[in-house]
Amino acid sequence: MGISINVNGATHSVDADGETPLLYILRNDLKLKGARFGCGSGSCGACTVVIDGKAVQSCDISLAAVAGKGITTLEGIGSREKMHALQSAFVAEQAAQCGYCTSGIIMTAYALLERNAHPSDAEICAALDGNICRCGTHARILRAIKKAAEAAP
Amino acid sequence: MNAPRKLPGNLETNRALERWLRINADGTVTVYTGKVEIGQGILTAIEQVVADELDVSPQRVRLQTASTAHGPDEGITSGSRSIEESAVALRYACAEVRELLLQRAAAKLGVSLEKTTVVDGEVSGGGRTVTYWELADAQMLKREASAQTAPKAASEHKYIGIPVQRRDLPAKITGIPAYIQDMDMPGMLYGRIVRPPAYAARLKSLDDTEIKAMPGVTAVVRDGSFLGVVAVREEQAVRAARGLARSAQWHNDQTLPAEMTPGAYLLAQPARVDVISEKSDPIIKQQGGQMLAATYTRPYIAHASMGPSCAVARFDGGHYEVWTHSQGIHPLRRDMAKALGIAIDALTVTHADGAGCYGHNGADDVALDAALLARAVPGHAVQVQWMREDEFAWEPYGPAMVVKTGAALDTAGNIVDWQLDLWSYPHSTRPEGKDGVNLLAAWHLAEPQPAATPANPPLPAGGSHRNAIPLYDFPNQRVTNHLVMQSPLRVSALRALGAHANVFAIESFMDELALAAGADPVEFRLRHLKDPRARAVIEMVAQKSDWKSGASGGGTRRRGIGFARYKNLGCYVAVVAEVDVEAEPRVTRAWAAVDVGLAINPDGVINQLEGGIIQSASMTLKEQVTFDRERITSRTWDDYPVMKFSEAPQVEVTLINRPDLPPVGAGEGATGPTAAAIANAIAAALGARVRDMPLTRERIIAALAQ
Are residues B238 and B333 in the same domain? Predict the structure, then answer.
């Protein structure tokens, strides 16, 4: 029984209705709290994860739809002890206030840098237009993403 | 006996030293603050203060989460007052405790107090050492603070005044559970609320038979028009709530205004009228020639937090335990006890971080929601999070306002007479009003508790009239507050309160007067302003932005300036905004200069200013709560667009540090000046003045057509 999904390189069997939004599976079944509920309709980006290389809003995609796909969450790219370049750039630039939107923004940036290692400002902004930051930390976030891109080979 | 001396900050209301800190035998210091982290970095600033005043490394400081179970009652975390109230209290408390420890050390080491030195809690004297951790005992802090020990001078600071990284960010950036939304407890259930479709709607009938039979549903709670559901899994609760919403029938009424721009409906209401400032010099007044007048408006604006309101509650053995992201756990607890009909001791409220709130949103309401659902499933923790649509529709908005200004210029172009009349609703309906209960669910119960009479924070800080009195030196002036008590939409405190609209009006009008006087806006402000700190931020931002009279930013870009001293007693902020008016108006760059006195965490101050500028630009250019005659129609991010990344400006903040002056908060200082700077840039670009927020392209075109 259960639906099998691959998250951060590990396979999990989840006993839930196939229509369940992926976000609730990640947060409540797998206890991965990086993706956050913001709107439930894929329009704020707080729940963004990366699925097969693409930034996807996990509140707006069902468990059944991601079975067999490779899901990466904020927890999968780095940890407090061993941060991803994006995470350490966000700390270095202090690119957050409340931090609630940050994980979704980092995951959107992660997907962007995977396909375009050195994006222009306009390309970063275009990628982030589906992510809302209400605290107004935009300028710092852009700096942090550019810093992470510059650190890449 | 003499009345006790007034103590600094919230030491005044929380005098027991042990309420603020404990020195532990394990080499740590436990610090209690009643202020809470809302993304502004207050806990980091407090850690810096404690480390410096006690002479311990920041790694030894353990900050306790604010809870009604321990620590000081510091009211509400709001009004940019946490530095002034909590950090200042701890500054004096720690200085005093350091002195107590040094007295004990001196006695133990057999040296005089002057012969002791301390490094990271280790006291040396006479060739021997002893540590705080050996010296302290439970008895030592069982005393009232005297605040007789002076805090350190700026030259002695090791941590205060240094840009310090926020202590809470690494967890939030790597996905370690940090928010109330992340809280997990064994056997925790999930709740959702089904709100009425409109303010005036009342539940007529409900058939919940099918809902109760849905998988995972453990309880349906109906109490008057309060309706909620508890389920084993979160998605089950969401699905059941949607089912309940479909089967509920409601009575409804048309209670909302016919138009969204606040002019007519706000001015038509009966108001309490108070003249709040009056200056008169009849001889100078006679020199007035050219007269100008203008009317400015602001619509209802939403806090629009990224994280919908969330709380966890457990009801067990007659006691409620509640966790929420409220800005004021003690006032909340007192209102919740009234709503639940219990003794206050039967309820503990503990803070947990939430998303940025920018004022009074649903953080208090949701705590009562969670308690009402938890009561139906004793022994189980219940987590309740609002849906996005309810967050938009039910939060208390920043009130709509109308500000009318009038002035007379003499032949030299100086302002000789100034009048300002503002109309607004009260700006606070937080819990613990003077009567009633200020919690949403309490109004919907079968035995409802009415809302408290709305409060308007008094001057000098002010609510609706915050920053309504100009800081400029006008020989004649009259400022009048017209307060309309009952708003048709739910309202409360939103970042900067009345200062957003009042500074927008004052500083827009200053530019209109400068134009009439043929003066440069920067020079025109300076000629009416004596306060040297005010002049310094204006001069600094002019210098940093390379301000030139009438200068273009290139193409369709122009610049405007705005200034205020927040509340007329907090931080000084001047902003220059560069706006591109080619399509929808967009702020391309912004510069700010800020003076907060002693800046405890300079990077924290700059971050708050940057955020304040960008958020104010979003509010000023784009935001307006929409409604029809029955209901709020702003329910999703599509109905209530805010600034996107591609629209956000570059921001450059210059801090004028004054380490010998008392520290004040920074969070709300940029909101008003930014709004005016944008309006002034648009006027400079097009020669058309838009006086109604939001400053949209549609309104610019209409202004050009006039």
Answer: yes
Q: Which residues contact B384 (CB under 8 A, 6 or more apart)?
A: B190, B191, B192, B193, B228, B310, B311, B312, B313, B366, B369, B370, B373
The pLDDT confidence band at residue B261, using thresholds 50, 70 and 90, is confident
Contacts of A73 in chain B (CB under 8 A): 175
Q: Are B500 and B618 in contact (CB under 8 A)?
A: no
pTM confidence score: 0.96
Residues of chain B neighbouring A140 (CB-CB closer than 8 A): 607, 610
Q: ipTM of the assembly?
A: 0.97
pLDDT digit string, tens, across residues A57-76:
999 999 999 998 999 999 99
pLDDT at A40 over 70: yes
Q: Are residues A11 and A70 in the same domain?
A: yes
A36–B307 CB contact, under 8 Å: yes
- The rounded distance, in Å, linking the Cα atoms of B172 and A33 is 10
Q: Do A90 and B169 count as a contact with CB atoms less than 8 A apart? A: yes
**Closest chain B residue by Cα to residue A35:** B175
Residues of chain A neighbouring B233 (CB-CB closer than 8 A): 16, 20, 24, 28
User: B553 pLDDT band (50/70/90 cuts)?
Assistant: low
Q: Which backbone phi and psi does B144 adopt, to 5 degrees?
A: -80, 145
CA distance B593 to B575: 7
Share of chain B above pLDDT 90, in %: 94
Q: Which residue of A has its CA nearest to B39?
A: A98
* Chain position carrying tokens 């010099």: B281
Q: How many domains does chain B have?
A: 3
Are the beta carbons of A131 and B645 separated by less than 8 Å?
A: yes
* Distance of alpha carbon B548 from alpha carbon B542, whole angstroms: 8
Instruction: Write down which residue in A36, A59, A77 finishes a domain.
Output: A77
**DSSP structure class, residue B576:** E
Q: State the residue range of the domain holding B600.
A: 263-300+397-427+463-705
Among A77, A110, A143, the domain boundary falls at A77
